[in-house]
Amino acid sequence: MFKKILIANRGEIACRVIKTARKMGIETVAIYSDADEGALHVKMADEAVHIGPPPANQSYIVIDKVMEAIRKTGAEAVHPGYGFLSENPKFAEALEAEGVAFIGPPKGAIEAMGDKITSKKIAQDANVSTVPGYMGLIENADEAVKISNDIGYPVMIKASAGGGGKGMRIAWNDEEARQGYQSSKNEAASSFGDDRIFIEKFVTQPRHIEIQVLCDSHGNGVYLNERECSIQRRNQKVVEEAPSPFLDEATRKAMGEQSLALAHAVGYSSAGTVEFIVDGEKNFYFLEMNTRLQVEHPVTELITGVDLVEQMIRVAAGEKLTIKQSDVGINGWAIENRLYAEDPYRGFLPSIGRLSRYRPPEEIAEKSRAVRNDTGVFEGGEISMYYDPMIAKLCTWAPSRAEAIEEMRSALDAFELEGIGHNLPFLAAVMDHPKFNSGEMTTAFIAEEYPEGFEGVTLNDAALRRIAASAAAMHRVAEIRRSRISGRMDNHERRVGADWIVTLQGQDFALTMSADRQGSDVIFGDGKSYRIESDWTPGDTLARLDVGGKPLILKVERRTSGYRIRYRGADLTVTIRTPRQAELAARMPEKTPPDTSKMLLCPMPGLIVKIDVEERQEVQEGQALCTVEAMKMENILRAEKKATVKKINATAGQSLAVDDVIMEFE
To answer: Which pTM was predicted?
Structure first.
């Protein structure tokens, strides 16, 4: 077995590999750029080597720099994680020449399966069902339009060397095919150093289901069931689960056997994933094979008990698999939510900044439930614009799907994250969505259920009452504390008062409160009552309460006359007033927000790649105005309505902050 391995990656996956290596008694080496000098993976590793400036193409994906770090530390093997160099055959070749083991598949398998065009042809030869498409190289946008018409819209434009949602666009017409071709090509070149593009038919209403395979170099292989990854945004997975609520045993077996056949056809060893799209009739079509560890591998580990990173290390060391297909079962259900640094209220655009608060829920591993959080950040750390915006992968496990979802709801409720925009509210909304809970979702889930974007959650009356009662009880505790601090101890409970008006989500709740040492009884005007018990103290940002015998977890921030409370995707301003205060507040005029309707504001911190219009030019609704790049993703900003450009304030190559004015209209 290896004594020392280098992890050629960063962030949560580097931390994940370090954990297993440490468990196996193997020393680890981290590499880091200038931006990652204080990163968690650097702190966790036994050694760390600096390899260059923040941009990945000047550090993490420069093979010579990684090889230099290997020589410097004497590492015997390299785990590439995912992304970066994980599917680069030149890197595997360089390691082989140096006599260093690659904790991944053979170079030939990477070349065969890592190239999406070649892999399609091999899959067809292996009698694996494939999606109709054009596998040849596409020279320019005009050819992309012609091919798209031949296949028939809609089509998927994809980077041949792509992955992780980078370099992918769906086109429904000629204009989108033309623009998508160029954007995909640009993103592919930036992210992978390979700008080849191919086009295939986009299957509408599909489910995205993938099979995890594990093979050794002695001809043995198993498939470890499937993962459902249908909740996607911009072709990037957001929620994953194992097993799939859609597959039956016969389809699972057929997909697994085809996946293994494909792996054996290319002499595959190590962990790999064969991705399929599956239609409503359970017809499945080969999409691609990822010759690496997948982001969502934890859910497979949770239902099988197999540590995939450990198996990859053992296979790379030449060991035989000790797992047989008959050993692989399905134990319970696992859900993974990807926590991203992105603002769901701004179209999920990337967000950067310092994590002023980062308190994930406690990790649990019990017989009846589990909570796991794979992360690469810490409180006070910086989210950089140079890398993928994923902060953490929050996973839960339970005996059934419904129980796993409920565990996830509680874990999301308890996850505290401040300082940047993030998608926690959206994830909470998905976990409560009827379509997700029924298991009847497709890859079009987000587009169909949130066509106008995510605008938060509107809570029902029952939830509002529970929160109103809790806020009143917390307010009472805070008022008592305030009285004690001021020295006015006598009869403080009487002075706090019993009658209150709690306002939230546009509704007023009149209630009366009585209290004892164990808690408070809150009675609403219609007679409905709740018993509130909690050990919450003023200043705590997380309130764990028992409301009418049921648990409730709220994120709490003090505000004038009340609190900001976040719960299950809802962000509420809660005011608590005496009846007289509420009467006077109702007469106060509302503050009018500034008018920005005639401005194009930068929706995220990013780089202006291109300005598509000129001053005095008339633009039409939907017309491209400019392109902003952030975290290696190009975002085309379009006109919301017909207008004339009055002034352009930005130029190509300029870096902008959120809400900087790019241009103004008449």
So the answer is: 0.82
